Amino acid sequence: MVKNYAEKLEEKLKEIKSFEALLKDFEAFKNSLERVERLIYKLFSSLEYLVKDLKIKKEKFSLKPAIEEVIFWVTPLCKDKNIELEVDIPEDIEIEGDKDWLMQAILNPLENAIKFSPPGEKVILKVYRRENDWINILIRDMGPGVAYEELPFLGMPFFKSSAEKGLGFGLFLTKKIVSAHGGKIRFNLPSQGGLEVLIEIPYNFKRVSISSSDMGFAK
């Protein structure tokens, strides 16, 4: 009888743990939904964001939880394609900038990396410091990459590489967000194949005015 009660108690504990896991997933989903709502508001409040400055809110935040929320968004896509997401993010990096926009700047190239990677491959997401008050966010995939001559055009408005489908807007928006924070974005072709996207952001917020010509638009 004691064994029977012990087994029932163990089953109840498993149910409680499962419920706790569901609550955590729900909280993560709730936070992500709130972020989308904030982002939609920003998009509608910046109807001319293609040719004018983005509305950037200055705040200090921890980078790891923000990127973990981005990872939560792409996890279903990784599971669908059996993509291993190798993540390396230091615990103690804080940054000044607009959290929602910077999360979007990371989400766009990360989604691309997963979409263009063959099933069963690995995508790398790595964050590391530089000595001169900058942080680097590296995203690398093992997809088809792009033609070398297309590299200078990545991130230009509505440019699509030969392997890309859609409007070609994601990397342009990422470039605009990064530039508005005083940062840079670089594209490289690793020797082992694929595409490497390197986002460089200063620790401290550096608001930069971005003109339409800076983003690739003709005056």
From TrEMBL:
It comes from the Bacteria. Pfam families: HATPase_c. Keywords: Kinase, Phosphoprotein, Transferase, Two-component regulatory system. GO terms for cellular component: plasma membrane. GO terms for biological process: cellular response to phosphate starvation. Residues 4-205 form the Histidine kinase domain. InterPro entries: BphY/WalK/GraS-like (IPR050351), HATPase_C_sf (IPR036890), HATPase_dom (IPR003594), His_kinase_dom (IPR005467), Sig_transdc_His_kin-like_C (IPR004358). This is histidine kinase. Its EC number is 2.7.13.3.
